[in-house]
Design a protein that fits this description.
The structure is a single chain. The protein is an alpha/beta fold. The chain has two domains: about 240 residues, Ribonuclease Z/Hydroxyacylglutathione hydrolase-like (Metallo-beta-lactamase, Chain A, 4-Layer Sandwich), CATH 3.60.15; about 140 residues, 3-Layer(aba) Sandwich (Rossmann fold), CATH 3.40.50.360. The chain is built from twelve helices and 21 strands. The strands form five sheets. Strands 1-2-7-8-9-10-11 form a seven-stranded mixed β-sheet, with no helix packed on it. Strands 12-13-14-15-16 form a five-stranded mixed β-sheet. Strands 18-17-19-20-21 form a five-stranded parallel β-sheet, sandwiched between helices. α6 packs antiparallel against α7 and α8 packs across α12.
């Protein structure tokens, strides 16, 4: 594929990876993906926006050469420094040594590590900074954590093009490039959001506040189709998916997840549930992990302020469904969530401590010591489970929160 004109003086110079089937370990890419990059021509020179994965560099440079000469390149804008977008940067700086690189303030150490050049010429940019080159104006937008801390966006004023970075992307290859020409990629668009942007909902909303001030004709993403037809529909979908709704009229949700071997951990879970239910300002739910699939786990975890996990210890470890639940949490925004754990054991009992440590590593607030009971819980121990639920509910409602910061 050669360069594709997407607007007056704006060209798509990205590359395609149709055969990739897994991206970043966690994502399936049934339709392959693309590594998008762009070129803007002005009356005083050229701006390159992002590069591509290193193994696709030759095609990337051929696309550039079909539109301009390297000596015309004045600036290189890097919205995101992940290797699939910065892989050709070092070679590009060699081919166009006169070009200054623009990055976000967080990206300085990264760009030196990626290029291996201590003397690379770059400038930090953020919201309200502008690049004026000839007849074009590029406005920079600080959009951190979408999905790395150094990510940013930019907006080409005269052509009304938003270069969004990874946000609004899709792992979806189609040689026709534009969203109104390619096949149905709706599933890929939402799948991408859920696996990459979902953990950063508050950052998505902050970015959208910046985007809503702009008159946007095209959203030029870093993966998947270029959004030229109804681009605001895709922005609105992100806004909808990232906006928290108070469907329970102010009541917070606490969800208990458990696995049980001989009903002992289940008995504890039910008494903890009873303790939570004693609060009129909470909604308590209880789930057997053996009956939940990943998508249901995600939905429940997302709406829960408090998450309590119950597990037995089997072969000195927690059972696989418990670890599957914890692995889902990397796809969530965890800010403000509170965790706890409990379980019955026969011999060693270390599974509960392992889960407690994992919750802390995931940046949950974990204010209570786990409740561990050997073998069959007594009536007194089940009363302690009830009190465990009561105390956890009080913490979710605000008690002792200063101790968990």
């Amino acid at each position: 594929m050669s360069a594709v004109k997407i607007k007056r003086d704006v060209y798509y110079i990205g590359v395609s990876d149709p055969d990739i089937r897994t991206f970043d370990i966690i994502m399936k890419t049934a339709n392959g993906t693309t590594y998008n990059a762009y070129l803007v021509k002005t009356t005083q020179g050229v701006i390159i926006l992002d590069t591509v994965k290193e193994e696709f560099s030759q095609e990337f440079f051929e696309n550039i050469e079909s539109v301009c000469r390297y000596e015309e390149i004045k600036y290189i804008v890097m919205h995101h420094l992940e290797p699939d977008h910065s892989g050709a940067l070092l070679e590009l700086t060699k081919k166009a040594p006169q070009a200054k690189v623009f990055i976000s303030p967080m990206a300085g150490p990264m760009i030196k590590a990626i290029t291996g050049k201590e003397d690379i010429e770059f400038e930090n940019v953020w919201t309200n900074k502008e690049l004026k080159l000839g007849d074009k104006t590029l406005k920079f937008l600080s959009t951190p954590n979408l999905h790395w801390p150094e990510t940013m966006s930019s907006y080409l004023v005269e052509e009304k093009v938003l270069f969004s970075g990874d946000v609004f992307g899709s792992h979806y290859f189609d040689s026709r490039v534009f969203n109104d020409l390619v096949g149905d990629f709706e599933y890929a668009f939402k799948y991408y959001y859920e696996h990459i942007m979902r953990p950063f909902k508050s950052d998505v909303i902050n970015a959208i506040k910046l985007y809503e001030k702009l008159d946007i004709d095209i959203v030029a993403t870093l993966h998947g189709p270029v959004l030229r037809k109804n681009p605001h529909e895709y922005i609105e979908l992100y806004k909808k998916w990232s906006t928290k709704t108070d469907r329970l009229h102010g009541k917070k949700i606490v969800s208990i997840f458990y696995v049980t071997s001989y009903k002992n951990t289940k008995d504890m879970a039910e008494r903890i549930y009873d303790g939570l239910e004693s609060s009129e300002t909470l909604i308590a739910n209880i789930y057997d992990l053996m009956a939940l699939d990943e998508q249901n786990m995600l939905s429940i975890l997302e709406e829960s302020t408090g998450i309590i996990i119950g597990t037995p210890t089997i072969n000195s470890d927690a059972p696989k469904p418990v670890w599957d639940l914890l692995s889902c949490m990397m796809l969530l925004e965890k800010k403000g969530k509170i965790g706890a754990c409990f379980g019955s054991f026969g011999w060693s009992g270390e599974a509960v401590d392992m889960i407690q440590a994992r919750l802390k590593a995931l940046k949950f607030r974990v204010p209570l010591e786990p409740q561990k009971i050997k073998l069959v819980p007594t009536k007194m121990e089940l009363n302690e489970s009830y009190n465990f639920g009561v105390e956890f509910g009080e913490i979710v409602n605000g008690k002792m929160m200063e101790m968990t910061l």
